[in-house]
Specification:
By secondary structure, this protein is α+β, with helices and mostly antiparallel strands. It contains 5 helices and 7 strands; from the N terminus they run ββαβαβαβααββ. It has helices spanning 20-36, 46-62, 75-81, 99-108, 110-116; strands spanning 7-8, 17-18, 43-44, 64-65, 89-96, 123-130, 136-143. Strands 2, 3, 5, 6 and 7 form a 5-stranded mixed β-sheet that branches. Strands 1-4 form a two-stranded antiparallel ribbon. A hairpin with a 5-residue loop joins strand 6 (123-130) and strand 7. The radius of gyration is 14 Å and the shape is globular. The two termini are 18 Å apart.
Length: 144
């Protein structure tokens, strides 16, 4: 992952709603893709879910969209600061009106698809926050 300028959103959402129902459904969709490719299912990871929800919330609260926070923190920095241990890790982001649109977009993107189908990953934390008219903010955090 190289240096990346955060994309400035033309809005902020101060109190987005956490959507555990959609997080559970997205894990099912990810594991369905993995099964199609002969890969083992990813296990839900509560520690990574907390990191993912935090990042989705931060992006909505401060009006940006990026793997790198305005202070320059990477997904790996966020995981480390929350004492999440990993040997390999990755992150996918999406902003969409529906779960289906987000999942389809991630699967069409080579880098995001590679994370979803990475055989080195065993756990996944998903943070989906509902920003009302501004859509759903998705963060997927993967680790071994």
């Amino acid at each position: 992952m190289g240096a990346e300028e955060p994309l400035k959103l033309p809005y902020t959402v101060k109190r987005p709603e956490i959507r555990p129902d959609l997080e559970d459904r997205m894990l099912v969709l990810v594991n369905k893709e993995r099964r199609k490719h002969g890969l083992k299912a990813l296990k839900a990871d509560p520690e990574l879910r907390s990191v993912a929800r935090g990042h989705s919330n931060d992006m909505f609260n401060r009006g940006y969209f990026s793997h790198i926070s305005p202070e320059g923190l990477s997904p790996f920095d966020r995981m480390t600061s929350r004492h999440v241990l990993f040997l390999v890790a990755g992150e996918n982001l999406a902003l969409a009106q529906t779960l289906q649109i987000a999942h389809a977009g991630l699967m069409k993107s080579p880098g995001h698809r590679a994370n979803i189908l990475n055989p080195g990953f065993g756990r996944l934390g998903i943070g989906i926050l509902d920003g009302g008219i501004y859509g759903l903010m998705f963060t997927q955090n993967f680790r071994n």
